[in-house]
Amino acid sequence: MNQESLRLLIRHKIQDGRLPHDSLTRVWSTASDGETCDACDTILAKDQMLMEGMTLAPGRKPLQLHVRCFQVWDHERRTA
User: Fewer CB near the last or first residue (10 Å), C or N of the chain?
Assistant: First the structure.
């Protein structure tokens, strides 16, 4: 997915609540085990790093993103 399409997808997911607008209370990275990225909906390859984070929103599962998707999400949530 090109950068502009990814940015628009993430912006839309922030607006409709599928991705959080608030900052994460805790963030960590680990090797992927085939998780699906919450931003772009593709599977992370086993050789990719997974960014995970927790929000303050009750009942929300940890956010799981590609590194690039995490960077775009962080930028978009700050400017939205």
Answer: C
